[in-house]
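Subject: Interface between my chains keeps coming out wrong

I've been trying for a while to get a sensible model of this assembly. When I model each chain on its own everything looks fine, but I need the whole thing in one frame so I can look at the contacts. Pasting all components below, labels as-is. Any help appreciated, I'm running out of ideas.
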Amino acid sequence: MILILKHQATDDQIDHVLRRVEAMGLKHHLSRGTHRTIVGIIGDEEQLREEPLKAIPGVAQVVPVLPPYKLASLDAHPEPSVIEISGVKVGGGHLGMIAGPCSVEDRDRMFRIAERVVASGANLFRGGAFKPRTSPYAFQGLGEDGLKLLREVGDKFGVPVVTEVTDPRLVELVAQYADMLQVGARNMQNFALLTEVGKSHRPVLLKRGMSATVTDLLMCAEYILSQGNANVVLCERGVKSFDPATRNLFDVAAVPLVHGLSHLPIIVDPSHATGRPDLIPACAMAGLAAGADGVHIEVHDCPEEAKSDGPQALLPDQYDELAAQMKSLAGLLGKTISPLAAK
Amino acid sequence: MILILKHQATDDQIDHVLRRVEAMGLKHHLSRGTHRTIVGIIGDEEQLREEPLKAIPGVAQVVPVLPPYKLASLDAHPEPSVIEISGVKVGGGHLGMIAGPCSVEDRDRMFRIAERVVASGANLFRGGAFKPRTSPYAFQGLGEDGLKLLREVGDKFGVPVVTEVTDPRLVELVAQYADMLQVGARNMQNFALLTEVGKSHRPVLLKRGMSATVTDLLMCAEYILSQGNANVVLCERGVKSFDPATRNLFDVAAVPLVHGLSHLPIIVDPSHATGRPDLIPACAMAGLAAGADGVHIEVHDCPEEAKSDGPQALLPDQYDELAAQMKSLAGLLGKTISPLAAK
Amino acid sequence: MILILKHQATDDQIDHVLRRVEAMGLKHHLSRGTHRTIVGIIGDEEQLREEPLKAIPGVAQVVPVLPPYKLASLDAHPEPSVIEISGVKVGGGHLGMIAGPCSVEDRDRMFRIAERVVASGANLFRGGAFKPRTSPYAFQGLGEDGLKLLREVGDKFGVPVVTEVTDPRLVELVAQYADMLQVGARNMQNFALLTEVGKSHRPVLLKRGMSATVTDLLMCAEYILSQGNANVVLCERGVKSFDPATRNLFDVAAVPLVHGLSHLPIIVDPSHATGRPDLIPACAMAGLAAGADGVHIEVHDCPEEAKSDGPQALLPDQYDELAAQMKSLAGLLGKTISPLAAK
Amino acid sequence: MILILKHQATDDQIDHVLRRVEAMGLKHHLSRGTHRTIVGIIGDEEQLREEPLKAIPGVAQVVPVLPPYKLASLDAHPEPSVIEISGVKVGGGHLGMIAGPCSVEDRDRMFRIAERVVASGANLFRGGAFKPRTSPYAFQGLGEDGLKLLREVGDKFGVPVVTEVTDPRLVELVAQYADMLQVGARNMQNFALLTEVGKSHRPVLLKRGMSATVTDLLMCAEYILSQGNANVVLCERGVKSFDPATRNLFDVAAVPLVHGLSHLPIIVDPSHATGRPDLIPACAMAGLAAGADGVHIEVHDCPEEAKSDGPQALLPDQYDELAAQMKSLAGLLGKTISPLAAK
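Reply #2:
Try treating it as a single job with all components included. I did that and got this:
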């Protein structure tokens, strides 16, 4: 931690700063420059983060030298983590191909869509049973009935299923049915929820909040890891921007950025990132080319009848075509796609 | 609702669109322009919002003509709402002056700070017992002990107390102690929590998310109102921006914008909006001048020892000076500050 | 300047860094912490800024300790500057009240609007003769004829006139007619233009770019100051945001932020910041309450016939009402509005 | 154009709106809904854009149905344009591989770098002679001497050269030496400059402004096209964001977005978009996978000695490795890279 003192910091203030550092049991290193005095603090930065150093009179700026997360960092785990979701590997060269409708809807449709996306090469099936909707009047999901249906689909096709959990009281219930728990973008900083999924034994798909920095995202992963659940897959799904042309702004650079900071896998979700089927294939390919550990795509066989997010879904035929292109690209990049266990 | 069709929309597609509208029991109004065909849909827009109209082949753009919230709108309630928090009025010309430390800390400090801010004119006292911290290793608040302490302070000084609730499981507990429940910016779209506070009988202070539009904020208020709790006060506390000079960007225009759309009061929180004590007084004054129904300020008597957010707190003397300026401005603007009930 | 070295920086790399610093004729100060090594560089930070320090192998981060501008800083000039525009003072307690139509249009209209806004208390009159329009097919302004008309209006009412210059080749021409040169938001970083207005003897109104930080704005002022023209007034006019409800996001905190960093006056322009007449009065008042040195408002007597930006103009009656409120607030704040010289 | 009227619009106001539309020689189409009245205007939207329709009393919202650009749109030119820069093709399946240092510096270095990047497969060489620097005290480029040196390099290696022009007065001079003129991000809306490069016979590389929407970018291309110069290549180079981890936010979705709206080629510049050599290769690959018509990379053989932007440059060896990967990906995507003419 480095403290840059104010131009006008008095000798008394400098003394006070040094005494405060000593009182924390830490060493300091004073450097008087032409224009500013700087205090380097030597010791456990973790402990220092908790201290309101910037509020000490005379301090102009506090510059941390270490990232605020530990377990999620490459320092803690220099090799890429490979997360297993009921047999399907994600990370370290293994691609997670997640596909399925936004919401779990009627039974026949679920089976039809799952059959198609699994045939195209998806190795994880998604569908929402509890939907976080911006309107209280919108369809909120089928609840436990949706979970049961999802489980049935998973069992039938031998594909692990992913679904969102939105309430700390529901984590246990959802974990009974789903192979992987999704924490959505709007709940990325719902710390009560993060703590509960951290206590669960299920792998977690943690989506980046719409205005979360990559550091914020890794801190939220740290919440989960710190509760003992090491199986976290991150997901870039677009951030807020000034351009209304797309629903969000797809931040593809977050992929190599995460890989340079953390061992956790990161996949991309061009469906939510762009909200536009015409842009999804290009952004899916871009994500893979940037090194993503998987791609999350919403697929629906009749978007104009979808209970939610229909306008951003690909048709099964469109997904099939994209999946073929993604397989070619994966080959070029030396990545593999975990096959499903034989049923 | 207006549907703008694609340039290349075929007659068959146009027919399909019209039949879909009729199937919903609604009327349509077709208008063929030089370059585009437009379909006006006449009827309950609420119902239409649920339909994935944009996914209908041939549809280029869907333009809603009504806001997506109802109970929060001026149409539902043309006069400004006046919210009463245990006797203190906010809205419709009454200013809520909220002050207090970020976290509830030790007992003596709480009483010392409360005495000072109440003497300066604060009519609502704040303090966090459950803290949503971005690091799992940071101080998470005193929990129920903090609530008890806060209640004691409220009773002693006759000032209603406001505190944050971060978990739907804790709403009932917090409502036992606090006069007003705060939903923080990171939980603005935690719909499980909104639903629970909507079922509570306590007034709610709903803070705007860091990347929420004003429409998003009003939709979240709608969640609470739709559960039967009409006592919602909104709070502008800064949005994300590209300029690192301030913690967030204080969106003062949100104040008149909300007043033109909704009957709900809106206060400003320059402490979180700027994160800088040197900017707080100017932004507090700006908020009032823009018509805000109150001001939320963090005050601490020794910021360098604060358990959280110390660097953004004002000292009691600074708050006293600012409160005097705010009172003068309130006088000029014809606003009143509810006095505390005599103890 | 502080260099934070990479975790893995080798002794050879550290040596190379130190030799590079010495080769620049500067001293260094090495501090080896538990996790990172830090090099403080003592000497002229101006010179160091030019060096690609971050590209030196082993360097992780470069932390400057001084602002990158000099002449614009409070260090160079601790008292607020008072800029005189043909007798009207702006800054240091004097408010510049700029009003007028977006574009200079027909002669009668100009005289009618000027008469009204001067009667309401405006002490600077604006109107665009060269318009930077986002469409090549839009009205581009009357050019020199517009300048002549503006001069006539200024002379008739004894009010200094402000107009935009968009091209370095036109600075001399515009300076012949106008009392103050405006550099618009889109040209804030048009360095060729800044250099030319810096050579002019006319005061400059420098508008903040839509995605410029306050530091960026002050660096552009520095360009002008460094050419010898010390008469710069800054203008906050909104920055880009994710919320489409307003044209831009009015950053009122930029006012106290600039006052804490620079001696230059800063005014606010709620017309461009919000693009909505219904929000302009509240934001004008907010700007003044935050300490702005003036307010820039577009006024048109028939907005639906305006050649540009009609939808964001106030009517003369609306301006009159707002001006009265602004005068009351100015009184409360102890600010004065320079009267016009008697004709 | 669709006008959505206000809830409270009176019959007189509706009449006035209709008469105004008729006075413009256009037809209207009135549709009275349950909550709102809508007026469709049939006729030349170009003409309507110029009218301040939103300022007409009773009008709540104006919804355009056509894009504001014409020559740049796919309607005007349904096939992708192929731009030729002294023999090198960009667009329609041809990739422009631009590489070179940020600034033109000393002669030997220019030849060394050019030799390396051409050997790696670059088919356009870049280098700045006139630099738009944010500090007036920073290196501003070698000027005409730099242009001469660049021309020499181009002639020696048979590679077309690209360089930035920052001042309308310099367009003719720069066009004498360079094969392609670059308009930088900060000058994207410098309309005087756009007009001058539009009159030039040289192809133009138009970089997207840091807070420009894709529509803004296409409008600026329209400025150039409307002056008669059809040879415009667009460039995505990152937009402003709230995350300080990267210099800008690389908006890879802009590539398919532009391809769906315009016939103009678009390349990506991961050097400026990220500002971090460690992220450049992944983002370059992402851009190509998204369909970009080329990649712009800064290369320097000793970044720590670069006169500008050293920290974001790749070393020649790094570029060589990346170029090989980009060639493989181009092969997979069926794109070709124009070879240089034999010298």
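Reply #3:
Confirming on my end. Chain C touches chain D through 48 residues (CB under 8 Å).
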